[in-house]
Amino acid sequence: MALDADTREQLIDTVRRFVAERLRPIEAEVAETDRVPDDVLAEMRSLGLFGLTIPEEYGGLDLSMEDECLVGIELGRTSPAFRSAFGTNVGIGSQGLVMFGTPEQKRKWLPGIASGEIVTSFALTEPEAGSDSAAVQTRAIRDGDAYVLNGSKRYITNANRAGLFTVMARTNPDIKGAGGVSAFLVPRDLPGLSIGKPEKKMGQQGAHICDVIFDNVRVPAENRLGAEGEGFKVAMQVLDRGRLHISSVCIGVAERLIADSVAYAAERKQFGQPIASFQLIQGMIADSKTEAMAARALTLESARKRDAGQNVTLEAAAAKYYASEMVGRVADRAVQIFGGAGYVADHGIERLYRDVRIFRIYEGTSQIQQVVIARETLKRGG
Ligand code: COS
């Protein structure tokens, strides 16, 4: 649902202040300790951040895609690890249920997801099924009134805190590709489900990814999401939405880095004048600003198309491709403008440089986005 202009302004202002006053001051501490403090998570819950996209009847704010992206841009102005704490509830962990769940499934899970009491995770990737996500090997074999899950998932965001997983598993081993895959809602406490240790990562400390292992996990048949064999399409439609969300976060980080670079360039003096007066520095600022503006326009336009009910597979892939590559370039220029100060930890620039690297990889690599964009363009005839 689209918010009216006043409510939208209020929400964005609240998030902007929360980011500036509460999150930015503890960015370095969270990176150091690899942990978002419990009181901050509690504040996120009370602000409604876990339920941004959950329908109102289940306790969420039911944001439109455009409003979600506007909030995502604000959240991008600090370490992306904070957004990750509730990002799966807003996006890939909940949207399969929102789009394809039965009324009973929604009543059972969505209120807890909206309040943040239940953290959700999206379990698609496997050791042998990354970009080729239709190759999932985790099996879900029907046995009476349940499916028995065996296999393992890899790099699953928030798995260590999750209470509910959306799991893509193969229900028909005779069908090798997408058509043999179904989606399931799998509660964390089912016997046989275990979680690996959080991986050590290049960036985004405070956000965790782990393996999820299924050893004869009996999942009630009523927990299947959508029809048998439709699980891959559930995953792809969830990702169409998720890719726009990630694009918005990339824009927020880029805008933050540009603001930081401009402030530093105005204050830092070399050759007797602020480095902002040098045209080679100005050239970098101009490139970063232009690209961030282009990503903003592309992402918000794509979000509006989705809100109008259009298929945005191409647009979401294009936005994610452009915005994630763009923020990589912007972060690189920010390090360059800060010079030595950008390379040491004090200003947080090198931290954001590392944090943004994953945007070109997760929810589909840049190369997968290119494949999707090209296929859709060929299909549409231009
Ligand atoms: N929405 C709805 N349906 C979709 C879809 C979408 N966005 N994309 C594909 N489908 C459907 C196709 O229409 C096809 O259905 P039919 O068999 O009925 O025609 C089915 O799903 C299989 O699609 P396709 O043939 O395109 O599958 P491929 O195996 O060729 O792979 C890519 C498609 C590569 C695009 C897909 O595997 C992908 O996006 N990979 C990256 C996965 C990813 O983002 N991983 C990150 C993990 S989550 S953090």
The rough form would be described as: globular
Content of β-strand? 5-15%
Biggest beta-sheet profile: 4 strands, mixed
Low-confidence stretches: none
CATH architecture call of the largest domain: Up-down Bundle
CATH topology of the largest domain, by name, is Butyryl-CoA Dehydrogenase, subunit A, domain 3
In the CATH hierarchy, what is the superfamily of the largest domain?
Answer: Butyryl-CoA Dehydrogenase, subunit A, domain 3
The CATH class of the largest domain is: Mainly Alpha
Question: Would you tell me the overall average pLDDT?
Answer: 97
Number of domains: 3
Q: Please tally the β strands and state the result.
A: 10
Short description:
This protein has 382 residues and is of the alpha+beta class.
Provide structural commentary:
The radius of gyration is 21 Å and the shape is globular. It contains 13 helices and 10 strands. The protein folds into 3 domains: 5-115, Butyryl-Coa Dehydrogenase, subunit A, domain 1 (Orthogonal Bundle), CATH 1.10.540.10; 120-229, Beta Barrel (Butyryl-CoA Dehydrogenase, subunit A, domain 2), CATH 2.40.110.10; 233-380, Butyryl-CoA Dehydrogenase, subunit A, domain 3, CATH 1.20.140. It has 382 residues and is α+β, with helices and mostly antiparallel strands. The strands form 3 sheets. The chain has a 4-stranded mixed sheet with strand order 1-4-5-8. Coenzyme a persulfide (COS) is lined by residues 124-125, 131, 133-134, 177-179, 232-233, 236-237, 239-240, 313, 362-364, 368, 371-372.
